[in-house]
Write the C-alpha cells for this entry.
Amino acid sequence: MKKAKKRAGTCFLLWISMIAACILSACGGQTVQQTQEPQTAVTTVDAKAGAQGQEEPEQAQAAETAAALEVAALKTEGDAETAGTAEAPEPGSTASTAEGAAPESAAAVDYSLPENWAYFAEGEDRDVDLFLVCPTVDVADEYNMSLDDEETKTSFVGALNMERGIYEDSTRMYAPFYRQAAMKVYGLENREDWEQYLGFAYRDVSAAFSWYLENENRGRPIILAGFSQGADMCYRLLEEYFSDADLNDQLVAVYAIGWACTEEMAAAYPQIRPAQAADDYGVVVSFDCEAPEVEETFINPAGQKALSINPLNWATDGTPADKSLNLGACFTTYGAEIRQEVPELCGCYIDESRGVLKVTDIDDADYPPIVPGLPEGGYHVFDYQFFFRNLQQNVQVRIESYRNAREADQAA
C-alpha cells in the first residue's frame, strides 16, 4: 500500500506558506460584487469567518483559505524542526501535549462543567438528541489539543458551526470539547503511531458521552455525527456502547462523514450497520469525496474497501446520481452562516472497487485539497458542504422513519 507523502517540519511550513501565497496570487487581492459561481474551500483549519463583505465568493473564499494556511504556518513556525515530523515520540514521553504531559498521565476532563462543552442542550424543544464530535482543528506543533488553548477552542466551535445547519432544526445538540489528535499526528510515517493520540482523544469523547447518557439523555433517541476525526470518534462510540440492545434501540443514525466505514469494522462489530437506503435507521451514513481520477488517499488507502452510501440517490452501488438531484451545496462559515448556496452543483457515484464517492461536474482547480497529504481531487474538506441540503433533508427523513417504527412497535 502506498503511503501519503510525509513532510518534515521545515517542508511542512514551506508547503503551507507556498499554497497560501498561490491562493492569494490566484485571487489577485481583488474584490468584486458577489456572483453565483461556486467557491473554494472553507475548511476546518480556516481562519475565523468574520465580516463577509461583498467579495466575489470564489475569491473571498480563496483569500479566507489562504489566511487559514498562513495561521497554520505561523503556529508551526515556533518549532519548525519538529512540526510535521515523521516520527512519534515514545509512549510515555513528555512531547505529546502542549502542557508537556504524556497522554497517559493527563488528568480526566470533568464533563459536569459547562465550560467543557462547545454545545450543551442547544434546542431544548427537540425530542431527538445529537451528539456531535468536532473534526480536526488543531494545527499547532503538538500531538493532542490543549483545552487551555482558547484560540483553538474558538476554531473548534467554528468548525462545529459549519456543520450545525444540517442538524439544528431536528435535534437537541451536544458537542464536547476534547483533546483531539492534532493535524501533526496524521503526518506520522507509521499509521500505528496515530493510535496513541487518537486513543487519548477518544478517552475524552467516551467520558463526555458516558456523562451525557447518565445525566442528560433519559431514554431519548440519539443521532451520532462527526466529520473526519469526528467520524472516527463516532465509530469508536458505536464499538464501545452500542452493543447494548437497549441503547442501540435509541439510535436513529450515525452520520460518520469523511472517514471510511470499512468491511472489517462492520464484520467485527454487528452494531456498525452501513446504511442501505434513505430511510433506514440505526445505521451508519458514510462517504468521502474524490475526483474520478484519484486512486488513493491516506483517508482511503489502496486495498481498503469503504462501505459508503450516495447522498443524492441513496444507492450503495455504482448507480450515478445526476447533479439535478443535488438540493444545494452550502459553503458555510465559522459563524454558522451559509456564505454561498449552489443548487445542482455536482453529481456523484460510488466507485464500486474502493467504495469511495466520486464527484462529477466540477473542476479540481476550484476545490483544492487543502489538507496536507491529499492529492489534487481529494475533496475531503467538502464532504458535507457539497451535499448539505440533501443531508439536512435526510436527517429529517430518518428521524421520521425511526418515530414511525417506534410507534408501530408500541401499537403492536
The two ends are 52 Å apart (CA to CA). Residues 1-86, 90-102 have pLDDT under 50 and may be disordered. Residues 112-411 form one domain.
